[in-house]
Amino acid sequence: MYARQAGCPSDFADVTVDFEPWEEGVAFETPADLAVRGDATPEEAAEFQAAVADGIRLELAALETGTTVAVAVVLRAMGIHAVDSHPRAFHHAGRLAVRNALALIHPPARPKRRRPSPRS
């Protein structure tokens, strides 16, 4: 979910995606039974879906040099707000989806606790 309240209008996009192993590259799929919460015209929904795909592709392209990307991404659900949803918000949601998926695979290292130094 990407939500930012900084006045009116704000940013809102809620997406559920599955990342699955696939051939080298990025395949983006939107199934016919996509769950859409909220109101959007078919044209708006298609624009939001394209923005999610673009955000995912850009975030994966920004990975370290030499990283091989081989993934199929399936958009399962979208939450849309009548006022605050727009393509840029869905683009950010796509980028965040990649970051969240990578954090599940490679959690950030926890800092080691330092032992207190002995008192003299």
Number of strands: 5
- SS field, number of helical segments: 2
Fraction in helix? 25-40%
* Shape descriptor: globular
Query: How many domain regions?
Result: 1
Q: What kind of sheet is the major sheet?
A: 5 strands, mixed
Beta-strand residue fraction:
25-35%
Secondary structure class reads alpha/beta
CATH architecture label: 2-Layer Sandwich
Average pLDDT level: 89
Radius of gyration: 18 Å
Q: Which CATH class is shown? A: Alpha Beta
Question: How far apart lie the N and C ends?
Answer: 52 Å
N-to-C series of helices and strands: EEEEHEH
Characteristics:
120 residues, alpha/beta, 2 helices, Ribosomal Protein S5, domain 2, single chain, globular
Task: Give an overview in words.
Strands 1, 2, 3, 4 and 5 form a five-stranded mixed beta sheet that branches. The chain is globular and about 70 Å long. It has two helices and five strands. A hairpin with a 6-residue loop joins strand 1 and strand 2. It has 120 residues and is of the alpha/beta class.
Short description:
By secondary structure, the protein is α/β, with parallel strands linked by helices.
Please outline the helices and strands.
Blueprint: E1 2-4, E2 11-21, E3 25-29, E4 35-37, H1 42-61, E5 70-79, H2 87-105
Parallel strand pairs: 3-5, 4-5
Antiparallel strand pairs: 1-2, 2-5
Helix pairs in contact: 1-2
